[in-house]
Amino acid sequence: MTAAPPPEELSEPVVRALVVAMRDGDRDTFYGSFAADAELTDDGALQDLRSWAEREVFEARGRLEVAEERQHGRYLLGRFRSDRADLHGTYWHFQITDGRITRLDVGQG
């Protein structure tokens, strides 16, 4: 268990790019972080990645405030804040292949 640095210093490059892109509202970098066939679950329910991201991240100005990173930066714990929610204790678990996110599981916990 490692206390997380600022987003620009997260350990895993593609996760770092994604978190910074969320903060900056950068759709190109955000979507470019994912493999073409990437999967996303939210509280265990499979979601359409683009629909979820538009709703939760871009339209609602969602941001992840990382409190802790684990598993070499592939598992983040923190606070997700947006115009719709302020959720403490969220997790973001990334599976990565060839420098792209192939699966992202987010939820409370």
Give a verbal description of the structure.
- With 109 residues, the protein is an alpha+beta fold.
- It is 27% helix and 46% strand.
- It has 3 helices and 7 strands.
- The chain has a 7-stranded mixed beta sheet with strand order 1-4-5-6-7-2-3.
- Strand 2 and strand 3 form a beta hairpin.
- The longest helix has 12 residues, at 13-24.
- It comes from Streptomyces mobaraensis.
- This is Nuclear transport factor 2 family protein.
Beta-strand proportion? over 45%
Task: Summarize the helix and strand pattern as letters.
Answer: EHHEEHEEEE
Summarize the amount of helix as a percent range: 25-40%
Low-confidence stretches: none
Which word captures the global form? globular
Number of domains in the coordinates?
Answer: 1
Q: Averaging pLDDT over every residue, what do you get? A: 94
Radius of gyration: 12 Å
Please list the strands of the largest sheet in the order they lie side by side.
1-4-5-6-7-2-3
Instruction: Kindly name the structural category.
Output: alpha+beta
CATH architecture: Roll
N- to C-terminal distance: 15 Å
Q: Mind summarizing the main beta sheet?
A: 7 strands, mixed
CATH class reads Alpha Beta
How many β-strand stretches?
A: 7
